[in-house]
Design goal:
The chain is mainly beta. The radius of gyration is 24 Å and the shape is globular. The strands form ten sheets. Strands 14, 15, 18, 22, 23, 26 and 27 form a seven-stranded mixed β-sheet that branches. Strands 9-8-7-6-12-13 form a six-stranded antiparallel β-sheet, with no helix packed on it. It has a five-stranded antiparallel β-sheet with strand order 3-4-5-11-10, with no helix packed on it. 5% of the residues lie in helices and 40% in strands. The relative contact order is 0.15. Strand 4 and strand 5 form a beta hairpin. It has five helices and 41 strands.
């Protein structure tokens, strides 16, 4: 049975990509630049979807002219200190007392963010200070994904009667609107001597979830912009951007920007030049031998190198055990990109790129194992091309730079994926005209019992859907009770699918459920699951430690009679372990009921319902009427 594991589309690793149209994302060439250069195109280009000013109306043309600068970097790494000078970064110019804050990080060479978690004994409040070396407005946005949609924005500028602070929200790539009620409280602000800065407090967990944003302390994406004008209508391309910041100080997965990989070696997993097929959807593959010279290496990070805007995603799979390809196939795959070859023999997810992704780096005490002693000596690179205009003659040689070292680290990390990993065969579809249709994919406890030998610690994850996806979350069920809901994304953006830093645990025997909500309003026909950009997916990819045997836990379609491939297909739970072929737990599995957690109450939606008097108000989120279609899910580890 042919398997297409991860069809990434807009997976973004955090910071600084420049957005395309939500309907038709593209990418430009991406080139790595040195951190700390405020003139680099890491910042958002005009018309991009993470432009804090936005547009007075939706501008598809501007969106389609995105600059997908997903490699470019512009910021030093975080500083966990409140000293006025750290790593030659002078804070003496900041117009307020920087020593009153616990942490700071430069978002660009001329803009610094300072913060303290917990204010005046209230653990649910955070204090932020932001300052720029500029003489105009200054804006700081709290975004779920890196895009404008749903961003909560603080704006400070010098008005006619003094310094003005405004709390705003963006409903899309449009001019943000002032919030009538906000959890942001202005403390102080000023603009003088070429510097603008202000301080404000904000709730960490909010009650009005349809209008305000939680602060993700393990990895908050900040949009930022500054200007030499106090007219909040436009800013220069080199004075805006976005960046993920770990506010908690935990050692979690982080982005590739500004990372110094030291003397690490670089393995360029780059496709031999290929002429992209003049087809709407094409998958092309190439094989790459892991370097010799050590019995084991540790991968410590990766950065994408995208060469053509038709690239929809890149995925590196690991080929465990013996080389699964014949000598003839190996020679062919190492010297040219083979399209529609199929990757079923290498299915261990290693890493990926999709629009908005800047790469990733592991904490400095963690690494991913490869080499003979890790039973992993080949990578298979998959490139998905999205060519709806059937362009001819387009060439590509994209890839991912993998940084590795023989200075082995203390902890080895793995990857664990959940969701539906055979969408082409799963045969589920979303009815048209639905505002919020829920699909659930569950990994049963039998899979984690057989694949986990101990508790695992998740340090990061990436969510993946397509254009109709609008919300997503992961839930954990333990002993028949739903005990956790992790990192609910309420404003999913097809063009921004980053690896989010996370901090939670799984135990052997846990069940977990990947939930995806889709909006099919305007569709005349059902939207089917599948590999194409106009079809849908529901996938999640986690990075965790310590590495475990589990590799995949997914619903699968298999012949009812396994001795007869022509027999009718039935659902079965697919549980895969590293280096082990498919293990099917059962056919047509009956999953036990569980006690669900209570949904968070949206106080704004509740107030709207009360004002309507008939309960007709709607937050637009998945707690409203949904269509539950329960399937089974999957998990990949490496």
């Amino acid at each position: 049975m042919r398997t297409h594991l991860l069809k990434f589309t807009a997976a973004a690793f955090w910071l600084g990509s420049c957005l395309a149209s939500p309907q038709d994302p593209e990418t430009e060439d991406v080139d790595t630049v040195e951190p700390g250069n405020d003139d680099t195109p890491n910042d958002i280009t005009e018309g991009s979807n993470n432009d804090l000013v936005g547009s007075n109306q939706q501008d598809d043309t501007a969106n389609e002219e995105q600059a997908q600068d997903s490699n470019n970097v512009a910021a030093p790494r975080a500083n966990d200190t409140n000293n006025s000078t750290v790593n030659d970064q002078d804070l003496s110019w900041v117009p307020f007392d920087s020593d009153t804050f616990d942490n700071h990080e430069f978002l660009s060479e001329n803009l610094v963010l300072l913060w303290t978690l917990g204010v005046d004994g209230n653990d649910n409040r955070a204090r932020f200070g932001v300052a720029s070396q500029s003489e105009g407005y200054l804006a700081l946005g709290f975004s779920e994904t890196g895009g404008m949609t749903g961003a909560q924005i603080a704006v400070g500028l010098q008005g006619d009667d003094g310094f003005e602070f405004t709390a705003m929200r963006a409903e899309g790539f449009v001019m943000p609107e002032e919030l009538e009620e906000s959890d942001m409280e202005f403390i102080e602000g000023s603009q003088e001597d070429g510097v603008t800065g202000f301080i404000f407090d904000k709730d960490i967990t909010v009650d009005c979830i349809s209008q305000l944003n939680d602060i993700r302390v393990d990895g908050q994406i900040f949009l930022w912009a500054y200007s030499d004008s106090n007219d909040f209508t436009k800013h220069d391309d080199d004075k805006r951007g976005y960046q993920m910041v770990t506010l908690s100080g935990e050692r979690l997965l982080s982005g590739g920007i500004g990372v110094d990989f030291g003397d690490a070696e670089i393995m360029k997993v780059t496709a031999p030049k290929v002429t992209i097929p003049a087809e709407e959807t094409a998958y092309c593959y190439s094989l790459h031998k892991i370097p010799e010279g050590a019995s084991k290496w540790h991968v410590i990070g990766d950065i994408p190198a995208v060469d053509n805007p038709l690239v929809h995603h890149l995925v590196i799979y690991g080929c465990h055990g013996e080389n699964p390809f014949t000598e003839e196939e190996t020679e062919q795959l190492q010297n040219e990109s083979i399209c529609d070859f199929g990757m079923g023999r290498c299915q261990a997810f290693i890493t990926e790129w999709a629009p908005g992704n800047k790469g990733r780096s592991f904490p400095d005490n963690m690494g991913f194992p490869m080499g003979p002693d890790a039973d992993l000596e080949y990578f298979l690179l998959e490139i998905h091309y999205d060519n709806p205009e059937l362009l001819e003659g387009e060439e590509d040689s994209s890839g991912i730079d993998v940084f590795y070292t023989d200075d082995l680290r203390e902890i080895e990390v793995g990857s664990l994926s959940t969701g539906d990993f055979q969408p082409a065969e799963s045969m589920w579809s979303i009815p048209p005209g639905e505002e919020s249709a829920l699909f659930e994919f569950e990994c049963p406890s039998e899979c984690t019992e057989s694949g986990l030998t101990e508790e695992i610690n998740v340090i990061g994850a990436m969510y993946h859907m397509h254009k109709r996806g609008h919300e997503m979350e992961l839930a954990v069920i333990r002993d028949g009770v739903e005990v956790e809901k992790f990192h609910r994304i309420r404003n999913f953006d097809f063009n921004y699918q980053p690896f989010f830093p996370m901090n939670f645990k799984f135990l052997p025997g846990d069940r977990f459920v990947t939930r995806c909500w889709y909006n099919t309003e305007g569709a005349e026909e059902p939207v089917s699951a599948g590999l194409g950009s106009n079809e849908e997916m529901c996938m999640m990819f986690m990075v965790y430690w310590p590495i475990q045997p589990i590799s995949l836990c997914s619903v699968d379609k298999i012949p009812e009679d396994r001795e007869n491939p022509e027999s009718p297909l039935v659902d079965a739970t697919q549980c895969r372990r590293i280096g082990v072929e498919e293990v099917f737990m059962s056919s047509n599995p009956e999953l036990p009921e569980f006690e669900p957690m209570a949904e968070r109450v949206d106080t704004c939606a509740a107030a709207l319902e009360d004002s309507d008097g008939d309960g007709a108000g709607s937050s637009g989120h998945a707690t409203d009427a949904v269509i539950p279609v329960i399937l089974l899910i999957s998990a990949i580890a490496m």
